[in-house]
Every structure is written in structure tokens, then in C-alpha cells.
Amino acid sequence: MIKYGHGTWGMQVLCRLQGSVVPKALVWSVPCALMTTLLHVFLRDAMTETIGTGGGIETIWAGYTFILGFLIVFRSNQAYSRFWESVTLTHKIRGQWTNAYSNLLAFCSTDQAREEEVSHFREYLLRLMSLLHCYALHQVCEMSDDRLEVIDLSGLSPDTVDFLHSCTSSDRAETVMLWIERLVVENDQKKLFAVAPPVLSRAFQELSAGMVNIAELKKIVEVPFPFPYSQYLSFMLVLQWLVSPLVACQLISEWWWAASTVWLMSTSYWTLFYIAQEIDQPFGEDSNDLPVVELQHEFNKNLLHLSSSQSYALPDFVSAIAVKRTTCMSMARLTLQSSKLQATSSSGPLCKALEDQLQREEQVEEVLEQEREGRRPNMRNMPEAEEEDCAKTIGQEPPALPVLATHNSRNTLLGPCAIEAAAQRGIQPEQPIELEILQSLVMELAVDYSEPEDIPALIDEAHQQRQTLAAASMETVAAHRVGGNAMSLIELVQHFQDLALELETGGGEERPLAREKKDLALAYLLQLLTGTLKRPHSVRINTI
């Protein structure tokens, strides 16, 4: 399918030939105009002597062209309806099956003991859904080769793949649908889903609705526009092409005006006729057909995105922190408040500190707004110390506030930057690595941290805490099995969160770093590793 822009004046489409039907129409209209010119110049007088002036022919010809125009417009409307219905059904199928896949992932048990079973089900379902969508498109598409991609099928047995290839095009989609239904039923019998059967049936409804829409698409592909209608319309167009030069020679006295009129009418009729033929069957490889290959690719991308652990893992949220409600999606620091208030009541001292901080930030924002409008900042309502501090703040980009540990923080995952940096070194997030490598990896990420020498001290402290916890829980042997001087990125984040919570409860006074400095450093590193740092290029953690 051609994606195009209209340009400033809406005429950019005139310069594009790909997918255009005007050249095909000109093949008919240009010879018709030339024929009109030759007849008008050389044979008009002889025709007048033979058949007369053709009085009354204009009335008959106007009625004929009206009927022809009506039939062509009706044909074009029907073709557009079939085209738009195909687009609608294709996207409905994609949405329904994506929703079914999302539901089945959400219904899976969260029991850690069954994590391996859930992973097996997820990977199996991922491949079957991709295969189902591929075979469904094959039912309605006319493609020269099998260019539709599917997610890796190496896990399926060769006999299964051979069986699918031996089936007809329609039987393949129905077979894969049956496999998916059997997979869900068998895992439901194993109690893999943590929902009631009526809720689970929602996924079956979405799957079956997609198959019904596939049948609707097959109706458009298998049932063409009625043949008698199409045949007679073609006959009328050819007849109009043959008779138009004769009628124009009799009715129009100037040859150039007769040729122009015939050319314009013939081009218009044939263009509408070819547009209807072009969009009547939107599945194929023509320029104006639906992008079937891209549709399958995007469906696979959606499946892979939903199957990633970051997608279906529920993010942490502490309602006590969400004291400021907004009606926009702004990611400014005023909407991402620190989770330091997670264990306090609404009247606690920390809540009072947050209110003061919000008031302070609002004053700073007011001064910045006055500066942007060219007005002199009004700081008369600020204490002298705050006025001096606010003056230093003006002109600096405000960083995002820390998002620290919550009661559900053990489910917090690494952010995309940390995962990408680890992958470039061939490191998995849960893989234990030497502290020196871990320190270099974190320092590589923390390019905006003002004092990078603090990072090794914090990592060493997190490692000491890990060893202490392992010894206390009788896991010393397991800890030494992976190496006494090693720790994974996931463990580092978890222990950083523990250290942050320890600071909130009043512990950690005798640690290597000062309390205030350590508080800010931990906040920054946690935001960096968990992907919650919204302005990574403007944050500077100033030491106290």
C-alpha cells in the first residue's frame, strides 16, 4: 500500500506514478482524442453531407453518458465498500487475537513454583498465535511466494510442520486454531490459570470472533463483483470510446475543442473504471493492495512485546505517594514524587516535608515563568534562604525526583538502558558477575553522575549486605557456589533498594558515605538502573 503526503498545497500526489491508474486511462483517451481530431479535420464535411447535422443526437447522447456515469459511480462505490470492509476486518482480526493473547498471559498463575510451566505455555502460545495469523492471511492473499514471517518454529516437531504443509490453505488456520484451543484447555485442567472458567472463556470468544472475521474476508475474496454487471459496463465504455469522436465532430465546430472534450470525458470514465478494478480485491502484491507482509510483521512485534517480562510484570505503585493528581501525561518531577512516604500516614512528618517541597517547587516554577515572560521575578514572599536558593535554581533544568523502593519492589525490573548495556557485554540481568565488571558497567551508565568514585563504595556496600543476608538465611554455600565476589544486576538493584529503605528507617549511619549524599546517590542509581530517570542528560547529583 502506498503511503503518501499531500504537500503544502495538496498537489504533491500529482507527481507520483506508482499505483496511479491515470496512465492506463490515457491509453484509451489519447487515441480517442486523436481520432476525433482526424475526423474533424478531414471527414467532417463528408460526414455532414452523408448523415446530416445530427439534429437531436445531443439529447440521446446525454442520456447515454448519464447512464454510463451512474453505472461507473455505482461500481466504484461497491469497490470502495469492499476495500474498506477488508481494511476493517483485517485490523479487527489483529486486535481480537492480540487481545486474546494478552488475556491468556494475564490469566496465568503468578506462583513462583509454576514459573517454568507458565514460561513453556507462553512460548508455545506465542508461536501458535503467529502461525495462526500467518495462515489466516494466506487464505485471503494472492502472493507469489511465502513471504509472511512467523516466529521461530524450531520447537515444533518436523512431523507437525509436514502435516501443516500437506493441508489446504483454509485447513491450516483451522488446525492451528484447534491446537491453541487444546493448549488452553489442557493447561486449564492443570490449574495454570488463576481465573474462573467464565473469565477464561473471554479469550475463546476473541479467538472465535477472529475466525468469523476471516470467513468474512474470504467472502470478499471468493465472491467477485457480478459478472454480467461488469461485462455490460465494459461494453458501454468501449462503445462510448468508439462513438464519442463521431458525436463530437457533429456537435462541436472547432477541432481542438472537440478533441479536448472527448479526451477529458474518456479519461474520467476510464480512470474511475480502473480505480474500481484496482481496489476491488485489496489482497495481493500490487501497489494499492493492503500491506500484508507489514501486517504480519507488526502482529509478530506485538506478540513479542507482550511476551517480554517488562510488559506483563505489574509495575510498583504506592497510593500514598500520589498526592498530586494531574490531567496530563507530563513526566515533570512534580508528577514523579519520591516513594520515601510509603510507610507514613497523611499527617506524618515526611508528608509535611513533601508538602513543603511541593510548595517550594511551585515557587520556583512561578519564578521561572516570570523570567520566561520577561517580567522581574517576584521573591518577596520567600524567606531569604529560599530566595537565594531559588535564584541559584533559575536557569537549571529540574531533574526527576527519585522513585525508590516500594512494598512490591522485588518485582522491579531493569530499565532498557541497563539491559542494553549488559547485553553488549554478553551479560544476562540475572547472571552473577565479578564486582569489578559490575562497577565498570554501572559507571558506564552513570555518565551524568558528578562523583563517580562513590559508585564502587555503594556497590561494595550492597555486596556486603548480600553476603550478610545469605549467611543469615543459611545460604552461604549457595553464595560461594556462584563466587564470593560476584553479584547480578538484579541483585544489585534489590540491595540498592534495601539500602534506601534502611536510610528511611534511620539505619546505615556508619556507612562509608554521608547519609544525605548517599540518599541522593542511591536515588539516582536506582532511577538509572530501573529506567525511571526521565531526564538522563540533565541530572546532576550535587553532594552535600
From TrEMBL:
Transmembrane helix recorded as keyword: yes
Q: Which UniProt keywords apply?
A: Ion transport, Membrane, Transmembrane, Transmembrane helix, Transport
Q: Report TM segments.
A: 21-43, 55-74
Q: Where in the cell is it found?
A: Membrane
Kindly give the membrane topology term recorded for this protein. Answer: Multi-pass membrane protein
Keyword Ribonucleoprotein assigned: no
The record's annotation in Pfam families points to:
Bestrophin_2
What is this protein called in UniProt? Uncharacterized protein
